[in-house]
Write the structure tokens for this entry.
Amino acid sequence: MDDDKGNAARTARWEERMEVPLGIASGLFLAGYAVHVLARQPSGVVDVSLIVVFASWALFLVDYAVRWRLSGLGLSFVHKHLLDTVVVVLPLLRPVRIVKVYDRQLRRHGEPRLSLYGRVIVYSGLSTSLLGFTGALAVYQQERGAPGTTMKTFGDAVWWACATLTTVGYGDVTPVTPGGRTIAVGMMACGLALLGAVTGSFSSWMIEIFSRGEGQKPPEDTKPPGS
Amino acid sequence: MDDDKGNAARTARWEERMEVPLGIASGLFLAGYAVHVLARQPSGVVDVSLIVVFASWALFLVDYAVRWRLSGLGLSFVHKHLLDTVVVVLPLLRPVRIVKVYDRQLRRHGEPRLSLYGRVIVYSGLSTSLLGFTGALAVYQQERGAPGTTMKTFGDAVWWACATLTTVGYGDVTPVTPGGRTIAVGMMACGLALLGAVTGSFSSWMIEIFSRGEGQKPPEDTKPPGS
Amino acid sequence: MDDDKGNAARTARWEERMEVPLGIASGLFLAGYAVHVLARQPSGVVDVSLIVVFASWALFLVDYAVRWRLSGLGLSFVHKHLLDTVVVVLPLLRPVRIVKVYDRQLRRHGEPRLSLYGRVIVYSGLSTSLLGFTGALAVYQQERGAPGTTMKTFGDAVWWACATLTTVGYGDVTPVTPGGRTIAVGMMACGLALLGAVTGSFSSWMIEIFSRGEGQKPPEDTKPPGS
Amino acid sequence: MDDDKGNAARTARWEERMEVPLGIASGLFLAGYAVHVLARQPSGVVDVSLIVVFASWALFLVDYAVRWRLSGLGLSFVHKHLLDTVVVVLPLLRPVRIVKVYDRQLRRHGEPRLSLYGRVIVYSGLSTSLLGFTGALAVYQQERGAPGTTMKTFGDAVWWACATLTTVGYGDVTPVTPGGRTIAVGMMACGLALLGAVTGSFSSWMIEIFSRGEGQKPPEDTKPPGS
């Protein structure tokens, strides 16, 4: 019992200390990966970007290992912290962490606190954007140069990602490789969940606005969440 | 404190006085823009429409400046009134203001007040329609004459806008230019949120109808909101 | 006041007396319209179907006129009973009335009453099916033989209607004529609303099932609504 | 009354005893069907798979017959247990039963009980996956070798199923045969309902997380349901 408390305290301290480095590493990972995918010719830039990517990944692994150690748990740690495990294996999902850092920044600067709905919208909106950008990068890496592909430029990939995450799905640009399609299915699942949160919150917020002050205040004065 | 109250009162008076002119300017802006986009040959009509567009835009700028002045805030005004700032920069979103004027008209004419759900549905339905029409105009302006475009007539653009805002997304008509696609992504995001409000309200209203009077009144007698 | 009550009573009596004839007329209208659209060669069958269609329409007009008369209202009747007015002008929406007759039948036969969610699901499920079938007929009538159409058989039209009402929107079959597209936009709007009710109720029902008896009864014993 | 109780008790005992055999039979049915569809050349494997499929089906029929007998009901059993009847006629829907067995397994192993939302998400997520896999198999069986089909491999069928169940609907792969399209319409309907449950629960869960402990615990510590 006492040991558990000590472990929890040490874990909390570790997490606090690592927050900024991990946030920076997430950003560097994403930037490095983007450079690696988008740079056409092999050059020094690509080499550096690859080093950045692997260094960030190593940092994530170290963080995971330390927290496993501190938790005092055996193999059940993998099961209990399934999300963290997934993020270590699929580090492209990591940058979503940036959203949390942004959230904390807002609090520190004494920003007028967003309403509940506003926070959900900002949180899931940012996650969706990051997920879309990351997914577009990953799918583009698979599709580039594949025979019969309709995804010729990175712009096409971003356009495809937007049409997918909003479930519009025009089908003018679609992945054709097994790798690209697998990532696409993951994006559909995550994107739907996040988008469901955004639209659900927006409609709740709108109903709240209308049910509150009828005629007291013109609705326009109530700024939408996130503005 | 006292100064703040005075500012608020002066702002309220200004907003009241400007409501009708700004509403008319919004309508003129949309009409002028539509004429500018849809008129084929350069002619006197197009010149007049351009003048109307810029005059309305100037009025929006003046309104924004006056309210900034009256608010007594510095640069934080831009941040606090982010929606207004966006509307000044992207005046195509302005016509959504017409919805508010329509709402106020309904009240003045002693119309039997709509239920909460009814108002949300009317409000977001109108906004969606306006957004669709405006978006179709803006995308059509980008796409017209682009090589390889499938959007040949303005009818195609409206058809595309409807399929996009409802997230059906057939893909028989799609934008191909970067400009058109950027506007399209904005439409997807806004449209989804608005549509989420419509469907959410409709389903809440339907459940309310069914949970109320079981057998007292046939459901058909309860007219749907907005009818 | 007294006159109003008399009017309401007379209206109620009229509606009760007309329920069965109007229900039958709705069914005949739909059947006649289907025969008219689907029969290839002009023949006696088509002539009879056209007569049935116009006779049903005439009955709807008579019903509307009588209720207008009984209501004792002037032109405001058109505005107050907007839904009825729409149904008279667009009689294809009429068959949705069959759902109400079905609902009443269920009650009379002492059927174990459906739960609230079950009724919403059955009600909107039936409406969606009818709307889809009617919409497929109407769009097929517009598209048949149009140059460049992808809707070659009525089966294609039904397939397109299903993909549209569920917002999947493959785009392998799409209307190309202005008339067909206008009907399609109406279907998207109605279908979305109805489908929102179905999914909203289903998810509410599922959450209710899970939050109720945890372990008391296996969830499978609770039959889904509408079964 | 007493007889009813006896029937219910006997039915419960039968269901308990049959749970594991029926679960195994469901799995075997799906596996056998998959082998039957995916094996290219007729061979001994296909013969065995067909025997497995029909044996499982026979077991379902026996179970249905015994429960009908035990219920002491006449023809009304078919109506009252409509879902079971559907499953007997369309045994491909049977494997969804595996989800229930999985749920019971979790309970027996003293797993930390999932929250309400978590259970709904896991339950409908698993059902959706199974439905998608089964639907892809069934549609692929119809489409394989059809003239003009775009569904050339089983991978295409799975990709199509994912795009359909999430309502993205690219349309790069679509069924063209009447049989395939009929199954597809069923998948759209079921998938929408299940997905509605997933997104509805996820957004409810997200809102709950945010409305709870503001600042007490960083949101990241709260693992998402199902992790």
Q: What stands out?
A: Helices of chain A lie at 2-38, 44-71, 76-80, 82-89, 97-108, 116-143, 154-165, 178-211. The longest helix of chain A spans residues 2-38. Confidence is low (pLDDT under 50) at residues 213-227 of chain A.
